[in-house]
Write a structure and sequence with these properties.
Chain lengths: 74, 822
């Protein structure tokens, strides 16, 4: 299953499901990354982690380890 | 005038301000309340609580709730916010939302409206919305949300009066418009409402039902549900989750966002296609792979350069040496005066050295033929010339001719600064003159001048530098770069339990620990901030440099490696502390999710920046000032007074003071570190006032025939000296920095934990240095000390490398707790 961690920089993907539980999952959802949401992968930080995405019209940064919880379809 | 009497409570109206971080909430709060604000803490948590009286009606109290994205039970800010709304029943909640980012901001509004309190939605930054070519239909939005909606610009003040009017008039209206979820969920919600929430008011029922459906353990605890009921809720939730193939929290969140998408489609329109905004263009460069790090280095250099080495340093020197020192020149030949003044000081030293040499050879310095007698017997004095900044020292041999030269300089009297230009006397000079003119009692004069004025000076002296630093930090924060620092550095710092933003405090800490600690204010996460506050002062600040220079010169023959090793030890202490502390109970648990908004770049607003700067500076004075003042007075007291022949008197030399007595009594504690001499202990204690004092105290307590420098040299062997250095670098910082730690920890227990931890690290490190290093220099032999040191090293390595207590367990327990009531 593809996750947001593997998404190419510059691509727009759709969230299909969120794994995990608890505070981190809730936080990701609260910030608008829910099933069906469109996520544009903007860039990777200079040191390779975290990544920056655009979702629901604003910029969000999240670590790759958290991005791995977000299943996507292209 | 509105006076509301609600449920038997007779008080003025209360407004609560709710909103996302970066939505302009603080700007609106400042506009509503002006300067009528008081800052406190929410009970039980270290979240700042701000309240103020409405500018246009002093009867109305406005509470600024913490900035939150949601009302989930996972962060202290969110819990404080929803508890306030549930328990304190504010008469109206103003929900400020960022008009340029409606989608995510309405997510919070949707939850707030559900709580059954009157809500007025304030769409902020309406000017920016118009500029971008978007239109928000106020009436439609108000109709769909079912509550009053105002369009405002908090920054420009546009629409704020109308907002206040709506909030004070519309206080009774409770919205009935809510998100409707999928039929399966609605069915479960009404089931929960009927079975578990019979006692809850109609207005709040739906919010509680949704929380129970989400499996919110905090709400379950609040309601004291009985276990069979809990089990029933769990099973109906489970069947609903199975039917819709997702988890309850996801279903609710998704339902809200789906509705918000509809609202936005219905209520907004976009004139022109959105082109790439300026903010996007800036961001493309500033955090890019190639330029991200160089730009970061440049910004950090500028911050350091301005706040530590140039403007901040000038301002602090002026405060310490001018206003709270002898005085300062407005114009004139300051250098000429300084040269003359230092010539005078060394001339005094030279004459003293020569006269002392005479006294020890039984030649009376008062006699007419003193110089001739000295020369006849070939007796010379030795004057020790020591430069505190460079650590250089030189023994000057004083013969009769040199003595007569110096005597002339001394006889000419101390140079008067007024002869060198326009001179303004410092506060101590003025106060001393005034006290002398009214014949003030000596001890009171001394208390005022050397105790209180010095203490106040220690507090005030930091303010100019803090102002410069806070100004720069406020600019970085308000323009949006601060969150990018975290973005750029997260990868390195999270390994050590620190935030990328911890870089700023540590960098500033190399100049001075006080602004360094205060800079940790920009770190939102509690654990990250505490960790940073606890470890920032490990890095050698500029006041510790003279200690390094002195010991490097006196004991290590000016070896090149001493100063770099001090920095290396400081950095190692920070990083190892991060790794070790992260695995302890203190900092246990998941670090806060690094799912962080990167706000759009803004031009920093002068009013916002200035306000933030002044607020932080005044909080330093208020919260840190008392600690600093008190501690300064106490140490002054014990170092100037002593018991001689059973009576308490002021003592000339430190060695008769209470400080010497105390230092002597506790010196045994430092025996395992290799320096159980009271002199070294006393110097370390006076270092708590300001680290600069350590060298000065050495100068006094090691005074003697051979000169203090030689005595110091004789008293220390390399391993003991390095152990003393390590201890002084790592132990509790000066009282000013301790005051800052107290301020930033917001909590007495945490404050003592931090100080205790620092002293513990210092003690253990110094012990290992002495016991192990001593084996090589021959200062210690294999024995109990070596064993203890070896055990401590083993313990340290264990703490460093043991696996992190698993976080897997905590995730599981969350899942489990959702299944059944806590």
């Amino acid at each position: 299953m593809a996750t947001l961690k593997d998404a190419r920089v510059g691509s727009t993907v759709t969230v299909s499901r969120l794994q995990g539980a608890g505070a981190i999952k809730r936080r990701i959802m609260d910030m608008g990354i829910t099933r069906g949401a469109q996520v544009f992968v903007r860039k990777v930080a200079p040191l390779g982690d975290p990544i920056e995405v655009t979702v629901r019209g604003f910029e969000l940064s999240l670590r790759k380890v958290d991005a791995q919880m977000i299943e996507i379809v292209p | 005038m509105h006076t509301y009497a609600i449920a038997g409570k007779d008080h003025g109206m209360r407004i609560a301000l709710l909103g996302n971080p970066n939505s302009g909430k603080t700007t609106l709060f400042n506009r509503l309340t002006g300067s009528n604000q008081y800052v406190g803490n929410w009970p039980g948590v270290t979240v700042e609580k701000k309240e103020g009286k409405l500018r246009s009606n002093k009867e109305i109290v406005v509470t600024d709730l913490p900035g939150v994205y949601s009302l989930s039970p996972y962060t202290p800010e969110e819990v404080v916010t929803r508890d306030y709304i549930l328990d304190e029943h504010p008469d109206v909640v103003i929900n400020i939302i960022d008009g340029t980012n409606l989608e995510r901001n309405l997510y919070l509004a949707d939850q707030a409206i559900e709580m059954g309190v009157p809500v007025v939605v304030a769409v902020n930054m309406i000017d920016a919305v118009r500029r971008s070519g978007a239109r928000i239909d106020q009436e439609k939005l108000s109709g769909t949300l079912g509550c009053p909606v105002c369009m405002i610009s908090a920054l420009k003040g546009e629409g704020v009066d109308e907002l206040v009017k709506q909030a004070t008039n519309g206080a009774q209206a409770v919205s009935s418009s809510r998100t409707h979820f999928a039929p399966e969920i609605e069915q479960t919600l009404s089931l929960i409402g009927d079975e578990a929430l019979a006692d809850i008011s109609q207005a709040q029922k739906r919010w509680y039902a949704i929380k129970l459906f989400e499996g919110d353990t905090k709400v379950e605890q609040r309601l004291h549900l009985d276990p069979t009921l809990c089990a029933r809720i769990s099973s109906s939730r489970a069947s609903c989750e199975r039917a819709l193939d997702d988890e309850s929290e996801s279903l609710i969140t998704m339902g809200r966002y789906d509705r918000i998408e509809q609202i936005i489609e219905h209520c907004t329109s976009q004139d022109k296609k959105k082109s790439m905004s300026t903010s996007d263009k800036i961001d493309r460069v500033v955090t890019s792979r190639a330029l991200g790090l160089p730009i970061f280095a440049l910004v950090m250099f500028l911050v350091y350069f301005l706040s530590v080495t140039t403007v901040g340093q000038w301002a602090t020197d002026w405060m310490n040496d001018g206003v709270f020192g002898d005085g300062w020149f407005i114009s004139g030949d300051a250098e000429g005066y300084e040269d003359a003044s230092s010539d005078f000081t060394s001339a005094e030293g030279i004459t003293e050295a020569f006269e002392e040499a005479g006294v020890s050879a039984d030649i009376d310095p008062e006699s007419e033929s003193f110089v001739e007698d000295m020369d006849a017997q070939g007796i010379t004095g030795i004057y020790n010339d020591y430069d505190e900044d460079s650590g250089e020292e030189e023994d000057v041999i004083v013969d009769g001719a040199a003595f007569e030269d110096a005597q002339e300089t001394v006889d000419a009297g101390e140079p008067n600064p007024a002869d060198y230009g326009v001179w303004v006397a410092g506060i101590p000079t003025l106060l001393a003159g005034w006290l002398a003119s009214i014949d003030c009692i000596d001890w009171l004069q001394d208390l005022l001048l050397n105790g209180i004025v010095a203490g106040v000076g220690a507090v005030i002296g930091f303010i100019p530098q803090l102002l410069v630093l806070f100004l720069l930090l406020a600019v970085l924060e308000s323009c949006g770069y601060m969150s990018r620092i975290a973005f750029v550095l997260d990868r390195v710092f999270r390994r050590f339990g620190l935030s990328g933003k911890s870089f700023v405090p540590i960098l500033i800490g190399t100049g001075c620990g006080v602004p360094g600690i205060m800079a940790s204010r920009t770190i939102e996460d509690d654990k990250d901030r505490r960790m940073t506050v606890m470890t920032t002062t490990f890095i050698p600040c500029s006041a510790k440099l003279p200690i390094i220079a002195l010991l490097a010169g006196a004991v290590f023959g000016g070896a090149w490696w001493v100063a770099p090793s001090a920095y290396f030890i400081g950095i190692a202490a920070i990083l190892c502390s991060g790794i070790i502390l992260k695995k302890t109970k203190l900092f246990a648990g998941d670090s806060s999710p690094f799912v962080m908004e990167l706000p759009a770049y803004h031009m920093p607003m002068p009013s916002v920046v200035l306000r933030s700067m002044l607020e932080r500076a005044s909080s330093f004075v208020k919260k840190a000032g008392t600690v600093i003042l008190l501690a300064t007075v106490v140490v002054w007291l014990v170092s100037t007074y002593g018991v001689v022949d059973g009576i308490l008197v002021t003592v000339e030399d430190n060695d008769q003071s209470m400080l010497a007595a105390i230092a002597g009594a506790i010196a045994w504690i430092f025996a395992p570190l290799g320096w159980d001499q009271w002199q070294a202990v006393a110097a370390t204690v006076t270092g708590l006032i300001a680290k600069e004092n350590v060298v000065g105290t050495f100068g006094i307590v090691y005074a003697g025939d051979a000169g203090w420098y030689a005595n110091l040299q004789a008293a220390f062997l390399p391993a003991a000296a390095f152990s003393l250095l390590v201890f002084n670098l790592l132990c509790a910082p000066c009282v000013a920095a301790m005051g800052a730690i107290r301020r930033e920890m917001h909590d007495t227990r945490w404050f003592w934990t931090a100080i205790g931890y620092q002293c513990g690290v210092a003690y253990v490190s110094a012990l290992i240095v002495y016991q192990i290093g001593g084996l090589f220099t021959g200062e210690t032999a294999l024995g109990a000390g070596t064993l203890v040191a070896a055990l401590l090293i083993a313990l340290f390595l264990f703490a460093l490398f043991r696996p992190k207590p698993s976080t897997q367990a905590s995730v599981l327990s969350v899942k489990k707790a959702k299944g059944e009531c806590a």
